[in-house]
Amino acid sequence: MRYVLIDESGRLADPNDKILIFSALVTKTLIDLDKIIPKVRRKIPPKGKYKKEKSLAEIKFQTTGERTRLKVLEAIKEKKLRIFLLIVNKEGRKIADNPKNYSLLVGTLLKFVIKKYSKINHIIIDRHFTWIKQREDFNNLLQKKLNKELFIEHLDSQQNTIVSLPDFIAGGVRKSYTKKEIKYKQIIEKLIEKEIKTTWRIIRSKQKR
Fold first, then answer.
1. How many CA atoms lie within 13 A of 69 on its CB side?
2. Which end of the chain is more exposed for a tag (fewer CB within 10 A), N or C?
3. Whole-angstrom Cα distance, residue 161 to residue 37?
């Protein structure tokens, strides 16, 4: 395994988002993964209630309906990727959305991934920060936390749909925690290698040790 695709569901700074889900998709190759979203998009009916969905700039979990969500997750299941999940209970806290905190969350998840797959060296993340300096700070902090040199890419999901895949995983899993809707998570259940449940308070306290 060489590659990890990462995205999250839930907003760090919004206290109303009680749960954050970070998903990591681990794979040996990126071949054909960028074809999943375009293939699903082509099958969206051009009329009726799906018309607006078909014209979206990007296909994401939060902007699509049940039919599209299920199709994307089924397509991911067929690729037999490995999934690692970090479930963070914010306990009503606001988390400042900055490179330090974001790298701490992503690093907490990646620690478990790299422990299992030590040859991981290429990380692909849905572009979270607007400014290059923020992304550079994130990269440096993440590599320092993991004590590992990594090639880290921050991709725009509108330009490269491959980073929408962990978004669908995180969104589907979050539904199982916040809305008790298990149909999405059930599809990819057998691909999940590890599911880490923790709180932001615990993550922060470990960082200070």
1. 22
2. C
3. 6
Residue reference for tokens 């969500």: 69
Pairing of strands 151-155, 3-9: unpaired
DSSP 8-state assignment for residue 30:
-
What is the residue type of 159? Q
For 58-166, list the strands marked E by DSSP.
82-89, 122-126, 151-155
Domain count, the chain: 1
pLDDT confidence of residue 80: 83
Task: Find how far residue 191's CA is from the centre of its chain.
Answer: 15
Return d(Cα 76, Cα 78) in angstroms, integer.
5
Three-class SS of 155-175: ECCCCCHHHHHHHHHHHHHHH
Q: What is the pLDDT of residue 209?
A: 58
- Residue type present at position 6: I
Please check the confidence at residue 6 and state whether its pLDDT lies above 80: yes
| 90: CATH | 3.30.420.10
Tens of pLDDT, residue by residue over 50-98, are: 778 878 888 899 999 999 999 999 999 999 899 999 999 999 999 999 9
Domain interval for residue 95 = 3-207
Q: Burial code of 84-119, b = ≥16 C-beta within 10 A, e = fewer?
A: bbbbbbbeeeebeebbebbbbbbbbbbbbbbeebee
The torsion angles phi and psi of 130, rounded to 5 degrees, stand at -75, -45
Q: How far apart are the first and last CA of the chain?
A: 31
